[in-house]
């Protein structure tokens, strides 16, 4: 589709959506006062303009809606080396996806945003690049929780957030079915590489240091980072990594990825060319049943032996990443974000049906009645709901982080582990804490946010967040809580229980 025309027609709408989406993080302001203090700068790719939010820290400037690449459907991106930016101060659109949480949406979604405390080239501030979550299928950095102003101001860092292609647009593996699209299974990853290449070329003009780039991401964003750590084309483009509740131990195998592509194409319709089908038809086909897992079809990075030639953390940590300091974190009750109280998993939950309820959710083949018995003996006063979340979190959501931390430790590579216990943290709770964007925080929440931001920023500056690296002798872990502390091997009993069963990442 015609990207320039689409963006031109939607620029005003994008600006309005960005402002409306940011209302949760910023007080309402009159339309004529929405931006102040425009600054222009010249970078190698050309001139960019800033729009500083009226009530943002006054020293921080936001350069929103910067195009970093273009791409034809299912093809590798092509870098844009001539400055191009959304008009009206708006963010770029989100990739097309199911649901309408993020608007506007467009295939032409390869845009990034920069927040900087100053544009002096000599400053050479650390650069923190955020990749959003959404399990490779959904999400957008236009979410107000990803506003980089407070993090940039507090840490004296340059913050970059990136949108890229998702779901079928970024990860539909057609290479074994259609020779036109050899890059399709990892197109979304190639977008991220193109964004990092834009940063390498231009970020010095924004006051950032292209030799000190930290990538960080939550959930799917963390998984994207773990995958980049094994992609040769990403080598040397970033220098530190933080993954937040997001791991990628193994990628999709090409045969399973092909089966998923076939299921998607069958849902799309016989004789329909996915290269020319309307966007809406491709999005609708995402409801195809996954032939491996059941549920909606899964898409993610593929071991295509072209762009990804080995699994990120199996059988070991990718050698190209061992010189990159890495921080890995999870929340103590991840799955509290996954299940509705009145959903089939939790409605009427009791000790009689607990084993049956956890069986499909653990995503591993282990005796569920035995697991429940062991957990009830270990936590005799714990109610079924808490046991459900404790069991499924440890079995499904935490295992990948353990695998990656252990692989790094075996390789003798820097790895720092944290666990967010604060307020029985669930999946996504560390995003607002790390950006300083929690709406109406309590004093305790603000203090926790400051603590997390300071650790992330210190890591970006130095490669050391302020606690010992994880090793196999002690398994040192920072527990972020009202009283933060380092513990050796927290949840050791849960880790050892599930270590009886080999870890196979869901979807791969």
Automatic annotation (TrEMBL):
<dbReference type="InterPro" id="IPR029058">
    <property type="entry name" value="AB_hydrolase_fold"/>
</dbReference>
<dbReference type="InterPro" id="IPR019819">
    <property type="entry name" value="Carboxylesterase_B_CS"/>
</dbReference>
<dbReference type="Pfam" id="PF00135">
    <property type="entry name" value="COesterase"/>
</dbReference>
<dbReference type="InterPro" id="IPR019826">
    <property type="entry name" value="Carboxylesterase_B_AS"/>
</dbReference>
<dbReference type="InterPro" id="IPR006311">
    <property type="entry name" value="TAT_signal"/>
</dbReference>
<comment type="similarity">
    <text>Belongs to the type-B carboxylesterase/lipase family.</text>
</comment>
<keyword id="KW-0378">Hydrolase</keyword>
<dbReference type="InterPro" id="IPR002018">
    <property type="entry name" value="CarbesteraseB"/>
</dbReference>
<dbReference type="InterPro" id="IPR050309">
    <property type="entry name" value="Type-B_Carboxylest/Lipase"/>
</dbReference>
<dbReference type="GO" id="GO:0016787">
    <property type="term" value="F:hydrolase activity"/>
</dbReference>
<feature type="domain" description="Carboxylesterase type B">
    <location>
        <begin position="50"/>
        <end position="484"/>
    </location>
</feature>
<protein>
    <recommendedName>
        <fullName>Carboxylic ester hydrolase</fullName>
        <ecNumber>3.1.1.-</ecNumber>
    </recommendedName>
</protein>
